[in-house]
Amino acid sequence: MMASISTVVRDITLVGEHIFDHAQVVRAEIDRFVDRFERNERHREFDGILRASHALVESSETPVEGLFYMGKMQTMTESVDEITKKIQALVEPKHQKEHEEYLEKVREEQKKYVDACREQAMNKMRSMAANR
Q1: Helix intervals (H) in the chain
Q2: Distance from C-alpha of 54 to C-alpha of 48, rounded to nearest angstrom
Q3: pTM of the model
Q4: For residue 14, which phi and psi values (nearest 5 degrees)?
Q5: For 26, how many CA atoms within 13 A lie in the half-sphere containing its CB?
Q6: Which of 115, 111, 37, 73 lies closest to 123 in space, CA to CA?
Q7: Origin, by domain of life (predicted)?
Q8: How far apart are the C-alpha atoms of 75 and 97, rounded to whole Å?
Q9: How many CA atoms lie within 13 A of 64 on its CB side?
């Protein structure tokens, strides 16, 4: 059985204009979104994205050829290289040289010990061969 619109409106106690007017529901959703957006501080992330976007636009509008002619690109490249070297120096272990020297001494001591054991074994084998 199909009901007429007036019957549905009366049954759900809505004014006819509210059936197709979603402003109240949409406003509530917008308020909820804004509240969550601000509470989660997403606006700060959005501001960061905008700043990065502006920096990209500015860099794309910068006349690069002029920087090459003035020597600024060379200076910037040298600065980047210098910073790269400093970063790489931070990545390397501070006591790398001392550690390598220590390992070399350990290898030498182990080699001496192995050679001494080998010499003793050879002497015992010669001694046993001589006693037969």
Answers
A1: 5-12, 16-20, 23-39, 42-61, 64-70, 72-91, 96-131
A2: 10
A3: 0.30
A4: -115, 150
A5: 5
A6: 115
A7: Eukaryota
A8: 33
A9: 6
Provide the token pair at 113: 């010990």
pLDDT mean for each 10 residues of the chain (132 residues): 60 58 74 75 71 74 72 84 87 77 92 93 89 78
Q: Determine the pLDDT at residue 13.
A: 57
CA distances 85 to 72, 78, 99, 114, Å, are 20, 11, 22, 42
Residue 49 structure tokens:
């994205």
The full DSSP string for 52-65 is: HHHHHHHHHHS-HH
Phi, psi of 128 (to 5 degrees): -65, -40
- Here the tokens at position 97 are 């040289």
Report how far residue 15's alpha carbon sits from residue 18's, in angstroms, rounded to the nearest whole number: 6
As given in the structure block, the two tokens for residue 114 are 């192995």
What CA–CA distance (Å, rounded) separates 25 from 33? Answer: 12
Position 108 scores a pLDDT of 94
Which residue reads 């989660």 in tokens? 40
